[in-house]
Write a structure and sequence with these properties.
The chain is of the alpha/beta class and 338 residues long. It folds into two domains: 239 residues, TIM Barrel, CATH 3.20.20; 69 residues, no CATH class. It contains 14 helices and twelve strands. α1 packs across α10, α6 crosses α7 and α13 runs antiparallel to α14. The longest helix is centred in the middle third of the chain and has 14 residues. 43% of the residues are buried. Bound molecules: ligand FNR.
Length: 338
């Protein structure tokens, strides 16, 4: 039976976030009402160095590093029709190899063209692609023509609106299914205002869904997602930082208490044997200033998953699950690496 292709219009979306966007966070966002969830950016060669394996204990599809067996990307059936894998790449051939490796397990592939970090830009990836439109187009059209799932890209804007629109139209001509637009230039930081009016002009100029991004400072509750969509004239909205702090922002009926969100997050982390280091990082980003409270300090000292879970009265559940996984031959890393 032919599966339905993911559509990008009229959606609220979890943005790609390195380290935050692993499986437990994505599943929780879907539970709370997100329509689509992006993975953290995964670099092409890391995926090329991995092999696919179905994990019949966790019921997940794992892409494991060939040399050390670490999980590069873990996904599962629950998110299959709504997860978009974001790739960091600067090479059409490599990008296609990765697309072929993952296209049966994810709903879409996005190319990161907005990351301003040195690691990305020096490697010709992320925002570097905005200044190499021919290379960027080659990557997009290669994927569009040879992959069976929808292809998108996520960009930043230029200072000059006309140049931005010209570039966007160029990208649209490759046949991509939607375009994510973060309304800041690669030199601008979160404290700079998001260029909502530029996103609006882009949306008026093209006929594929625009996914607006960069609004976390002005999005404090669910209704603000709708307002941001209107202000940017876009079809869909993608959020990062506000979801990082409390991902129940996706709940139509109002945000949940952070304690409940953390517990629900820990449950998924335990059930999917998420790495303790990653779990700690994500909880830390939810706690934010609460890290200085006595409980927060106790959390920071935690060295194992069980210790973290004990703070939220889930220590015994964690211990039992870990014993179960060990008895079934799963030997995930138990210690937190600095
Ligand atoms: C990001 N961002 C990001 N963008 C991207 O395309 N790929 C990525 O892997 C990441 N990683 C990442 C990690 C973290 C911790 C943050 C806070 C951000 C950028 C992000 O997707 C988004 O474009 C910006 O944060 C602006 O959106 P918000 O935060 O205003 O909703």
């Amino acid at each position: 039976m032919c599966e339905e292709r993911l559509k990008y219009d009229n959606k609220f979306i979890l943005a790609p976030m390195v380290r935050m966007g692993t499986l437990p966070m994505r599943l929780l966002c879907l539970d709370y009402g997100a329509d689509i969830v992006y993975t953290e950016e995964l670099i092409d060669w890391k995926l090329m160095r991995s092999f696919r394996r179905y994990n019949d204990v966790l019921k997940t599809v794992d892409f494991l590093d060939k040399s050390d067996g670490t999980v590069v990307f873990r996904t599962c059936a629950k998110e299959k029709d709504r997860v978009v894998l974001q790739m960091g790449t600067c090479d059409a051939g490599r990008a296609l190899q990765v697309a072929k490796l993952v296209e049966n397990d994810v709903a879409g592939i996005d190319i990161n063209m907005g990351c301003p970090k040195e690691f990305s830009v020096k490697g010709g990836m992320g925002a570097a692609l905005l200044t190499k439109p021919e290379k960027a187009k080659e990557i997009l059209s290669t994927l569009v023509q040879n992959s069976k799932i929808p292809i998108t890209c996520k960009i930043r804007v230029f200072d000059n609106e006309e140049n931005t629109i010209k570039l966007v139209k160029d990208f649209v001509s490759t046949g991509i299914s939607a375009i994510g637009v973060h309304g800041r230039t690669k030199y601008e930081r979160p404290m700079h205002a998001n260029r909502n009016s530029t996103i609006k002009k882009i949306a008026e100029s093209i006929n594929i869904p625009v996914i607006s991004n960069g609004g976390s400072r002005e999005i404090l509750k669910y209704e603000d997602l709708e307002k941001f969509r209107k202000d940017t004239g876009s079809s869909s909205v993608m959020i990062a930082r506000v979801a990082q702090a409390n991902c129940s922002i996706f709940c139509k009926d109002g945000m949940k208490d952070l304690e409940d969100v953390i517990k629900a997050y820990l449950k998924y982390s335990i059930d999917y044997d998420n790495s303790p280091s990653n779990t700690k990082y994500c909880v830390q980003n939810m706690l934010k200033e609460l890290q200085v409270t006595p409980r927060g300090k106790k959390f920071l000292e935690c060295q194992t998953m069980e210790q973290i879970c004990t703070i939220w009265e889930m220590g015994e559940y964690c211990r039992q699950k870990q014993l179960e996984f060990q008895s079934k031959g799963i030997l995930g890393r138990r210690e937190i690496t600095p």
